[in-house]
Amino acid sequence: MRPAAAPAGGPAGSGGRGPRHGRLAWLVLPALAFFTLFGIIPLIGVFILSFTDWDGIGDLRFAGLDSWTAVLKDPELPNALLVTFLIMALSWLFQTPISLLIGVFIAGHQRYRAFLAVLYFVPLLLSSAAIAIVYKALLDPNFGIGSGLGLSFLNQDWLGRRWLALGVVVFVVSWQFVPFHSLIYQGGVRQIPASMYEAAQLDGAGRVKQFFHITVPQLKYTIITSSTLMVVGSLTFFDLIFVLTQGGPGNATRALALDMYLRGFRASLMGQASAIAVILVLVGLALALALQRLGGKDSKSSQLEGA
Which of 49, 56, 236, 283 is 20 to 30 A from 265 in CA distance terms? Predict the structure, then answer.
């Protein structure tokens, strides 16, 4: 006798998965529609604007590659790129270890750690402009925190010296966004099975060894995700820098995003600003893809695989 055929749409064979996958595909459409409406279409518009000399008010007039030529030949572009990558690298070096340690700490289930987790998250709820105004007042060499507390070593021209100003920008950015990445690491740590730590304790491993041999390796993909958000997000800093230093002293903190804003809304060079925006998108995309490749071919698998 011939074996009975599997019912259509049943679990047997690949045909059983087809209808279910077809239904799940519809769930992607709302997200795809939003991404197209608020991501793809504006990006296409910015790309088109980069070939114009629009001043933001009058009619569009195509100018070929004039805007691109002006941007790429501008001697300030290498400085803006250097400042952008310096802020990116220094903020990553500053934020990653602190976020990781805080995330591991608040991953505990004690009540006081939950309370501290809420306190740590407060800076992320504040406006970047408000944070910049507060820090600018605190760092004032005449009326800031140094004079108020009588601490002369704090009476520095923090925002008037090139490297000090860059350091202040990195510190303030990190202070604001460390809570966000700590929350990511907290979630990653809580996914690690407690049995792994119990086995390590039976083998005589202390907390330091457990951290470096269990916690950090198990957070591989969490670190990559956090680093991607951190690196790509650093390309968009302009409001905090604008309020804090306005790109100064000189052009010491004039990052690429701030340069785009100043060209577009101060100099009314929307074509050049759009060209810089396209450069930012390309740089961000390249960095995101490079970081994701660090995860290897199994970057989408669970970090607990084989635990």
Answer: 283
Strand extents, DSSP E, 57-167? none
**Distances in whole angstroms, Cα of residue 204 to Cα of each of 36, 196, 209, 216:** 54, 13, 10, 18
For the cut 70, the answer to whether the pLDDT of residue 12 exceeds it is: no
Q: Which tokens sit at 20?
A: 């279910």
- How many CB atoms are located within 10 Å of the residue 218 CB? 18
Kindly compute the dihedral angle of the four CA atoms of residues 103, 106, 108, 114, in this order, to the nearest 10 degrees: -150
Higher pLDDT, 169 or 300: 169
- Show the tokens assigned to 241: 């820098």
d(CA 146, CA 139): 8
Share of the chain above pLDDT 90, in %: 60
Per-position DSSP letters for 80-97, written without gaps between them: HHHHHHHHHHHHHHHHHH
Structure tokens at 264: 């577009």
* CA 268 to each of CA 71, 72, 119, 271: distance values in angstroms, whole numbers, following the listed order: 14, 18, 42, 9
Q: What is the pLDDT of residues 171-208, one digit of tens each?
A: 999 999 999 999 999 999 999 999 999 999 998 889 89
CB 283 within 8 A of CB 63: no
CB burial class (10 A; 0-12, 13-18, 19+) of residue 175? middle
Enumerate residues 6+ apart whose C-beta is below 8 A from 160. Answer: 248, 249
pTM: 0.84
How many Å apart are CA 260 and CA 257, to the nearest integer?
A: 5
Closest CA to 72 of 50, 88, 89, 55: 50
